[in-house]
From TrEMBL:
GO molecular function: hydrolase activity
CDD domains: ArsA
Annotated SUPFAM superfamilies: P-loop containing nucleoside triphosphate hydrolases (SSF52540)
Domain ArsA/GET3 Anion-transporting ATPase-like: from-to ranges: 48-212
Superkingdom of source: Eukaryota
Name this polypeptide is given: Putative arsenical pump ATPase, ArsA/GET3, P-loop containing nucleoside triphosphate hydrolase
PANTHER family named in the record: OS02G0711200 PROTEIN (PTHR43868), P-LOOP CONTAINING NUCLEOSIDE TRIPHOSPHATE HYDROLASES SUPERFAMILY PROTEIN (PTHR43868:SF1)
Keyword field: Hydrolase
Gene3D superfamilies: P-loop containing nucleotide triphosphate hydrolases
Keyword field contains Hydrolase: yes
C-alpha cells in the first residue's frame, strides 16, 4: 500500500508490468494522495493492480480515476473502473451508461457502478443455496426476500469489499480466471469516502484480532461449541458457492479456525508496498 502525491499512471516497482506515460506534470496537479497496491499470486499469472484516489467531494477524485483508467487501458492493460456513487461524471466522460454489471466502454476499458441494494441480493442467494444443501435454518432463510431488505449503516463498505474481492482476489488465489467477465489487470476504484476506503484496505489486518476473540467465544462457551461449526460451514459454503470447492469439509473446528487465520494473514501480506 502506498500514499503518493502523483497520479497513479506510473505503476510502483512491485507491479511486474512496467510502463511509463510521457505527459506534462505541470498540467496535472492532484490535490489528494493515491493508494496503489497489488496482490501476489503463487502461480505465473500477473497480479491484479488495485488503484484508488483519496479526497473530498469536488476535489476531482472521480475525474482522476477515469483519467487513470483510460491511460491504463490505452497501455494495453485490461482495466475496470469501479464507481461507488451515483455521480454521473464518469458516464459523461466515457460516453457510456454505467450499470451494475461491467460495461465495455472501449478497448481494454470496462466500467461498473456499485449499488448496495443490488449487491445484497447475490450473497443472500448464495446463502440460500448453501442452506438448501446444509438445511441449517430448516427453510427459514429461503423465506427472506432480498428486495425488501434496506441498507443499514456500514453495509456500503462491507458489500463493496465483497465485490472488490471478486475483482482483485484479496483473500484467496485468483479465482476469477474461471469467469472472464471479472478477469482484469487493473482495477481503478472510485470509493465513497477517504476514511471508508482506508478502513477497507486495512480490514484484513485488523480482522485478525476480531477473529481471535470470536474463536475464544466459539471454543469456550456452550453456545459457541454447539453452533460454531455449523455457522462456519454455512459461511464457507456461501463464500465458495459456484467458484471453488470447500476446503473445510470433514475438518475439525480448530482446523477451520486455523485456516481462516491463515487466509487473513496471507491476504494482509499480499498487499505490496510501493511508491509511485
Amino acid at each position: 500500500m502506498a500514499f503518493c502525491n502523483l497520479p497513479t499512471l506510473v505503476p510502483s516497482s512491485s507491479f511486474p508490468l512496467q510502463f511509463q506515460f510521457n505527459f506534462n506534470r505541470n498540467l496535472i496537479r492532484p490535490r489528494f494522495p493515491t493508494i496503489t497496491m497489488a496482490t501476489k499470486t503463487d502461480d505465473n499469472d500477473n497480479p491484479t493492480k488495485f488503484v484508488t484516489f483519496l479526497g473530498k467531494g469536488g476535489s476531482g477524485k472521480t475525474f482522476s480515476a477515469v483519467f487513470a483508467a483510460q491511460h491504463y487501458a490505452s497501455a494495453g492493460f485490461k482495466t475496470c473502473l469501479v464507481i461507488h456513487s451515483q455521480d454521473p461524471t464518469a458516464d459523461y466522460i466515457l460516453n457510456s451508461k454505467i450499470g451494475t454489471t461491467p460495461v465495455t466502454c472501449n478497448d481494454n476499458l470496462s466500467a461498473v457502478r456499485l449499488e448496495t441494494t443490488k449487491m445484497i441480493l447475490e450473497p443472500l442467494s448464495k446463502m440460500k443455496q448453501a442452506d438448501a444443501r446444509l438445511n441449517l435454518t430448516q427453510g427459514v432463510l429461503e423465506g427472506v426476500v432480498g428486495e425488501e431488505l434496506g441498507v443499514l449503516p456500514g453495509m456500503d463498505t462491507i458489500f463493496s469489499a465483497l465485490e472488490l474481492e471478486k475483482l482483485v482476489g484479496f483473500l484467496r488465489k485468483k479465482t476469477t480466471k474461471s469467469n472472464p467477465k471479472y478477469n482484469f489487470d487493473v482495477i481503478v476504484y472510485d470509493g465513497l469516502s477517504t476514511e471508508e476506503t482506508i478502513r477497507l484496505i486495512g480490514a484484513t489486518g485488523k480482522s485478525r484480532l476480531y477473529l481471535k476473540y470470536l474463536r475464544l467465544l466459539a471454543e469456550k462457551t456452550d453456545f459457541g461449541r454447539l453452533a460454531g461449526p455449523s455457522l462456519l460451514r454455512l459461511a464457507d459454503e456461501s463464500l465458495n458457492a459456484g467458484t471453488i470447492s470447500s476446503g473445510y469439509n470433514g475438518q475439525l473446528s480448530g482446523e477451520i479456525w486455523d485456516k481462516l487465520e491463515q487466509t487473513l494473514e496471507v491476504s494482509h501480506s499480499h498487499f505490496l508496498i510501493g511508491i509511485s
